[in-house]
Amino acid sequence: MTGEAIAEELLLLAYDDETGKATMPRISLDLGMAAAVLVELALAGRIAYADGNLSVVDTTPTGAPIVDEVLTRMAADDPLSSSSWVQRLRHGLRDRILGDLVQRGVVRDVEETELGFIVVHRYPMVDPSVEEDTRRRLTEALTGGPAPDERTAALATLVAAIRMEPVLGLTGEAARDVDKRLAEIAGGAGFSGEVSMEDSVVRPSVALVVIALGQAVDAALGPRR
Asked: Which fold is adopted by the domain 6-219?
């Protein structure tokens, strides 16, 4: 695997650079982290859809520590549905990814106390280069640039599934068309719609994770208006 993990890119988009606070509901973000790691493993050829479940097909480490932790966990367990894995993996994953970003100097951990006893953490940006690259790729994909690569298409698909469109900061016509364009990117990459095994196991594997994510977010937040 090369570049930043998709879950890291998604998380950086979701936190305000200055305040270091999440700009969206924590539950949908936690679900998104779990789905992003599953998508990462599917794109890397480590897991695949078979007989209604996601199964590990290759235990070779990807080189991304958090992704590999999940791979090891999945390999030690029985195959489960996409929905089951999304729910199982969401607990604690966001904090683990934030901790890794702090260790690498991308964000910093600011601990504060509210009401005299409630400890909260903020994560202001330190090194904006990762998020800047992520935003550049997404903006190009959403505003008529060249067709996005597979990983950018997967990230765009996850952005739509967890209702993150407002954090992209688009304005004018681009903002009005963002939902339509995200759907086009997801469909063009084979990451949404009908699940087919014609081309490879990657696309149906990702599509099932995205469908499970969308259902979980709808259950948590209510249907999209």
From this structure: yeast vps74-n-term truncation variant fold (1.10.3630)
